[in-house]
């Protein structure tokens, strides 16, 4: 029941790697969106006060 074939093992490693890469990209995406939001908000704020 616990016995794993080499194929299943490499597949689970691949899935783990994919999840790791996705999580890394997801964090970068969030940071980029926050950065973008800050720029847009500052631009709107400046245009209101001009």
Notes on the protein architecture:
The chain is mostly helical. The protein has one domain. It contains one helix and no strands. The chain has one helix at 6-49. The radius of gyration is 21 Å and the shape is rod-shaped. The protein starts with 5 loop residues before the first helix and ends with a helix. The mean pLDDT is 80.
What structural keywords apply?
mainly alpha; single chain; rod-shaped; 50 residues
Describe the SSE topology.
Blueprint: H1 6-49
The poorly predicted ranges are: none
Name the shape in a single word: rod-shaped
**Number of separate strands:** 0
Report the mean per-residue pLDDT as an integer.
80
**N- to C-terminal distance:** 70 Å
Q: Please describe the biggest sheet, giving its number of strands, its sense, and whether it closes into a barrel.
A: none
SSE order in H/E notation?
Answer: H
Estimate the strand proportion: under 5%
The structural domain count equals: 1
Rg to the nearest angstrom? 21 Å
Number of helices: 1
Class per helix and strand makeup:
mainly alpha
> Roughly how much helix do the residues carry, as a percent range?
over 70%
């Amino acid at each position: 029941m616990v016995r794993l074939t080499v194929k299943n093992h490499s597949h689970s490693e691949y899935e783990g790697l994919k999840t790791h890469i996705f999580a890394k990209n997801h964090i970068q995406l969030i940071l980029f969106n926050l950065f973008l939001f800050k720029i847009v908000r500052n631009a709107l704020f400046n245009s209101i006060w001009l």
